[in-house]
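Researcher: Quick one. two chains, 494 residues in total.
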Amino acid sequence: MYPDNFRYTKEHEWVLADGDAGTIGITDHAQQELGDIVYVDLPKVGTRIEAGKSLGSVESVKAVSDIYAPVNGEITEINESLADAPEKLNTDPHGAAWLVKIRLSNPEEIQHLMSAADYLSYVGAEK
Amino acid sequence: MPAPPALRYTPLHSVHRSLGARMVDFGGWDMPVQYSGIIDEHKAVRNAVGMFDVSHMGEIEIRGREAAKLTDTVTTNAVHKLKLGQAHYSGLLYEHGGFVDDILVHKVADDHYFLCVNASNQDKDFEHIVAQNHFDAIVENTGERYAQIAIQGPKARATLQKLTPVDLSGIQYYWFADGEVSGTPARIAHTGYTGEDGFEIYVPPADAERMWKLVMDAGAEFGIKPCGLGARNTLRLEAKMALYGHEIDASISPLEADLEWIVKLDKGEFVGRDALLKQKQNGLRRRLIGFEMRGRGIGRDGYEVFLNGAAAGWVTSGGPAPTLNKNIGLCYLPAQQSVPGTSIQIMIRNQPVDAVTVETPFYKRAK
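Model:
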């Protein structure tokens, strides 16, 4: 369910990094908690993101949720396909429905995030 | 610090749990917000049939020789015009014209009126009515005597008809019949809060689980789905039905809320009438109107509305309309500008996003 090569946050984002190139998304647990996702608001390419600060939002039928940057960096690409098909976040949050690609300011930062096993026990304990 | 009061459970609570519903605290009740998903449930009601546990709703009964007089005194609609077995939507107002609650009034007998009220307003409503009871009438808070199940959608009648000898096609919209559903005494009302055809049945709490299962089985061939408060909200918004705490509250009058049709100023004295007359004479300051988003984004409850660059009102309810594939909402605007076709901006996360006011209801079922 939760890929081993991803790192996870307490706010239910994931990040996959290869050197200073990273991809950010929300976790399967997050999409389940949100329910039907109907809108995604993402920043522009070139925007600097700061770890722990909101980089955009995901909206379900009922509510708006912030997406928090797992690490520091700069947006290099956004997933344009989500504008017309936000519901993909409900079906493939760890794959085709990634949110943004970034250049990490400091690739070491992902070491502070949770492993898949840690995240799994974290969401297990939250219930 | 006293412990917070425990959440209240409806008689169907364990059914919701066993179905894996996501539960939320709704006005002090632990209620299902969704089962299979809000959009899925919404579409089941528009296209086939859905079932809702609305047992949290309150009931207040007014009996006695002057029951009609008391009911007419505390509500805005014309109680004396109701026929036996007829119901109507109405308002319970304060002297200043704001809403205590919005309610349904059913005429059970000349000396018996049955009110369905909002769950979280039940005690307040009861006290308000009792305070006006200068009549030969008895007011009872009877919420615990009833479970209420709403069966809604184009296949609602076919579903429920399998379970009752009462001829449902003989019950006009906003009429009701007292009969039986599978041997259980039930008040069967042709009412609803979805904008779709359907029924709301009031049954003894002890029979609620059996009723739920019978309706699920009866509706299986149509693809019946259990539906939560999430779908109830998107359905009622498309139909532009008011929700207490959003479109209406103690600070809003029925004239402002575009509910003049439930106010019968010519029926004689009722609580709030003088304030409404004054509002009509002086003109309304603000008025409810529907809007559709034009820019990208969803205007939601509480968001500010701008008109010509200045703050002018607020969104009362807003969100996606699953039947219409649009983002819609209701908002208050100054009365003069509260007309369809006005360009407005909704402030979404500090950014103005274009929207336009529109005619309502957003969705109207084909008859």
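Residues 13-55+146-238 of chain B form a domain with the Gyrase A; domain 2 fold (CATH 3.30.1360.120).
Researcher: Thanks, that's what I needed.
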